[in-house]
C-alpha cells in the first residue's frame, strides 16, 4: 500500500502502520488455561498469530493460589508472555474479559475490553455498536475512544475475537497440556 501525504493518522502514526493486538485467554472444559494473541492491521487483517499450549494447573497450585490463580496464570503468565514474544509491538490491545484488563499494569500500551452494546432505548443516541472499558488510568479512556472511532470506519473490531477463538481451538487439538509453575 502506498502511503499518501494526506493519509489519516492515529496516535501520531500513519493508519497503514497501526497494529492492533487481540488477546484472549479462555479455559477449556478440563479447566486448562488457553491463550492466544492475534496481531492485525487497522482493517483487522492478520499480521501474526501465536498461542500457548494448554496450561494445566495442579490441585496444589489451585489451593496455594486460591482466588489469585486465574489472574496469575491468565495475565502474568499467558497474556504477558504472548505480548512480550510478539514480533511486532501493538499500538493498542483489545481483550475480551475484565480479568485481562489487568494486563494494563504490565504495559504502557492502552488495553481495553471490547463488548457489544446491549439494545436499549437509552443507547439510541450512540454512534457505535461497541463499548469499551479500561482500568481508568489517566487519559486511557480518551485515547481508546479516539482509536475506536477511527478504526470502526474500517472494520468490525469485535470479529477478530471469533476468528482467534476458533484458531485457538484448532491449534489446541494437536497440543498436549503442559504443567505451569505459577
The number of strands is 9
Number of helices: 4
CATH class: Alpha Beta
Mean pLDDT across every amino acid position: 87
Structure explained in plain terms:
The chain has helices at residues 59-65, 69-85, 140-151, 159-172; strands at 9-10, 13-14, 20-24, 33-40, 46-56, 92-95, 111-116, 130-133, 178-179. It has a single domain (13-119, 127-142, 154-179), classed as 2-Layer Sandwich (Nucleotidyltransferase, domain 5). The N and C termini lie far apart (44 Å). The chain is 27% helix and 24% strand. Mean pLDDT is 87; it is low at 120-126. The relative contact order is 0.20. It has 182 residues and is α/β, with parallel strands linked by helices. The chain has four helices and nine strands, in the order E-E-E-E-E-H-H-E-E-E-H-H-E. The strands form two sheets. It has a seven-stranded mixed sheet, with helices on both faces. A two-stranded antiparallel ribbon has the order 1-2. The chain is globular.
